[in-house]
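Notes from hallway chat w/ T.B., transcribed later so I don't forget. T.B. wanted the structure written out for a chain they're using in a teaching module, and asked if we could keep both sequence and structure tokens in one place. Agreed to drop them here.
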Amino acid sequence: MKKIYYALLFVFVINACTTKKQHPDNNDTPTIEDPYAGLHPPGLTPELFAPGMVATEEHLETEVLFLPDMTEFSFNRSSGKNGESATLIVMEYNNKNWNRKSVPQSDVDNYRERFSPSFIELNSLEPFKDIPIWGGTLSAKGTYYFYVLNPDGNGYMGYSRLINGKYETPQKMSSAINRGKYIAHPFIAPDESYLMWDAEKENEDRPDVYISFRQKDGSWGTAINMGDKINTSVYEQRPKVTPDGKYFTFWRGYFKTKEDGSRVLLGNPYWVDAQIIEKFRPK
């Protein structure tokens, strides 16, 4: 798992230590009539995200990140060779269709920040400054869920609530969440009713996507593997839900040996109707 995790850092670098505030405020309601025009949204079976436009067989494409108003989304594309830099691709909604937007090289960093705002300032606050945080996610009311990861795969997920404008002392989450190695890439529901993340499978070196639901007493339920529709024999990571709450997205990747003997990492973003989450909610 160590090899795959650190290989992924080269292409997922914009999200390695940062995350996007996934949930818009009430004033950020999507303003376009049909943000999925031309993207052919899936049903309850996961599908490649926009084959040909985004997902291809010959490249490594990263997760898809939407702006809160759903007028643009971005992803990175590379050949999958270890150490190769990735190209940021931005798609813009115009005239009921999605088209590639020209991004000058001088503006690439600004665009990366738009889609994945940095938590550097937040992590520098007193409660967090001595914690080696890799990334995190914010709920609608500002609760910060973050993860700490060591080179050997050990680490944990923690959280800190925003109370009267200040963050409380961070707490480690319970063993219901902190199980296994390479616990990473959390996504919290706007109302904190569920939490998704990825972690290494037990007795294997490949990550799966997990979900936990908030219990009536406020505690978190035991981690639930999201099953064979989401998780396969390859790598599944980085669960998210689109800003409008309609679709669940994740990344699936694998290593491939080419004809010249070189080994490359390939993979694509996938998506599925977010109603699939309800399948796992305890009755």
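Follow-up for T.B.: The chain has one domain: 2-280. Might be a good example for the class.
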